[in-house]
Amino acid sequence: MRFRETGFGFDSTAGVLATTGGTNDIYGTVRIQGAGSTIVVAGESTAVFHDPVTNSGGVIEVFPGSSAVYLQGLTTTGSGSALSVHLADPDEDPDFGSVEVGGIAALDGTLQVQLAAGFVPTNGDTFQLLTAAGGITGSLSLASAPPLSTGLQWNLDINATTVVLSVVSTGDYNGNGIVDAADYVVWRKTLNQTGPGLAADGNGNGVVDVADYDFWRSRFGSVVGSGLGSSAPVPEPATVTLLMIGAAFALRRRVDELLGPGNFRLQGAAPKSAPPPHAAYGRRRAMARS
Fold first, then answer.
1. pLDDT reported for residue 267
2. Rounded-to-integer distance, Cα 207 and Cα 123, Å
C-alpha cells in the first residue's frame, strides 16, 4: 500500500487502517487523530510502516500473533492516544501482539489490555509488547486491564528500549488487601506444595518455598495498590506467631468487655475427660475432714 509522499499520506480523524493477513508494506507518512481513528493489525498479520507514524489521539490495536513494525519511528502524543494489546497464553501460538520500532518510540497516552477468550494470566506471565532500536522517550500509563486472580497485579515496566507487561504477586497471599501476618499463615500451610496458581508462590516459580517467605517479608505492611512500599517493621517467623497469639488474647479481652452484666456467653461443653465439678468438690470436703 502506498500513500502520497508529500505531507501526511494517510491523515484520518475517524478512519481505520487495518491489516488482516500476511505481510503488508505501507509507504507514506501516517497520522491518526481522534478516538474514532484506528490502526488495526489483526489476523496474525504483519504491518510494516516504512515512513514515520504519528498517533495523536487515536488507537493502535494489535491482536494476538500480529506485529506492527515502524521502521522510521513511532510518535504518540496527547492523553487520548492509546496502544491497545490483546494478550493470549505466552506458551501457546499465537501468543500476543507486538510492536517493533526501528527508530525512536516517543510515547504518551495509555496502554489498554484485553485478553483472548479463555486466557487466564498467572503469576510470572511476561509480555514484551514493544521494542525500539532507537530508544524510548516518554511513557505510557496502564489505563485499563482485566482483573487478575487474588494476590496478583499487573506490572508495567518501561525502560530504555522495551515496554514489558507482566503478572506479579503482591505478597497478599490471602487477598484481603494488605500484606500482613495472615499471609504468613497461608505460606506456612502450603510450604513445599508445587503446581501452578498457588496463592503463596510469590515469585511464580511453581513451588511454595523459603523464597516466597522472603518475598512476603519484603512487602510486609504494604497496602495492595499503594506501590508496595514497606510501611511497617518486618517480623521474623517467631514474631509472627507471637503476634497471632497476642491477637487471640486481645480478641478474648474484647469479648469480655462486650459481654458485661446482663449479657450471655455461649460456651461449648467441657471435654469428656475432665472430672465433673462435684467430684472435685467432694475431694476437697474429704481432705478437709481428714
1. 35
2. 12
